[in-house]
C-alpha cells in the first residue's frame, strides 16, 4: 500500500469537507445536527438510540455532499439549460429530501415518547 498516496487522498477528502462547510445547505444541516445532539444529551438517549441518531446525522451530511458534487458536475457538463440537467439536479435534491423526511420521522419516534 502506498502510504503517501493514501495520505494525499485523505487530504483531498478533507478539502471536500471544508468545501462542503462553506455551502449554505450544509451549514443548515450542521445547525440542525447541533440542535439534535444537544436535545439528545438533555433527553438522555440510550446507547442504541445514540447510534441511530449519529448514523442518521452522518448519512445526512454525506448525502448533502453527494448532492453538491452532482450539482457541480451538472454545472460543468451543462452550463446552459437542459431538461436532463434539471432532472439530475432535481433527483439529487429529491434524494436529500426523502432522507431528511424519514430521518425526521425516526427522530420524532425516538424523542417524542421520552418527552411525554
Ligand atoms: N443547467 C440546468 N438546466 C436545467 N435546469 C437547471 C439547470 N441548473 C439548474 N436547474 C434547475 O434549477 C434548480 C436550482 O438549481 P441550482 O443550481 O441553483 O441548485 P440549488 O439546489 O439551488 O443549488 P445551490 O446549493 O448551488 O444553491 C435545479 O434544481 C433545477 O431544477
From TrEMBL:
Keywords per UniProt: ATP-binding, Cell membrane, Kinase, Lipid biosynthesis, Lipid metabolism, Membrane, Nucleotide-binding, Phospholipid biosynthesis, Phospholipid metabolism, Transferase, Transmembrane, Transmembrane helix
Stored InterPro entries: DAGK, DAGK_sf, UDPK
EC number(s) reported in the record: 2.7.1.-
The name this protein goes by in its record: Diacylglycerol kinase family protein
Principal subcellular localization: membrane
Membrane-spanning residues: 26-44, 50-70, 91-112
PROSITE patterns registered for this protein in UniProt: DAGK_PROKAR (PS01069)
Signal peptide from the UniProt entry: none
Top-level taxon: Bacteria
Recorded family membership: Belongs to the bacterial diacylglycerol kinase family.
Localisation per UniProt entry: Cell membrane
Membrane topology classification: Multi-pass membrane protein
Gene Ontology molecular function: any one: kinase activity
One Pfam family cited in the UniProt record for this chain: DAGK_prokar
KW Transport (keyword) present: no
Amino acid at each position: 500500500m502506498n502510504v503517501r498516496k493514501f495520505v494525499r487522498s485523505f487530504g483531498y477528502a478533507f478539502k471536500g469537507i471544508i468545501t462542503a462547510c462553506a455551502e449554505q445547505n450544509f451549514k443548515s444541516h450542521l445547525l440542525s445536527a447541533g440542535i439534535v445532539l444537544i436535545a439528545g444529551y438533555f433527553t438522555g438517549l440510550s446507547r442504541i438510540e445514540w447510534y441511530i441518531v449519529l448514523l442518521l446525522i452522518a448519512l445526512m451530511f454525506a448525502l448533502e455532499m453527494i448532492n453538491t458534487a452532482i450539482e457541480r458536475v451538472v454545472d460543468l457538463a451543462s452550463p446552459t439549460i437542459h431538461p436532463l440537467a434539471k432532472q439530475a439536479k432535481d433527483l439529487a435534491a429529491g434524494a436529500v429530501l426523502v432522507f431528511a423526511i424519514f430521518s425526521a420521522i425516526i427522530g420524532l419516534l425516538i424523542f417524542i415518547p421520552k418527552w411525554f
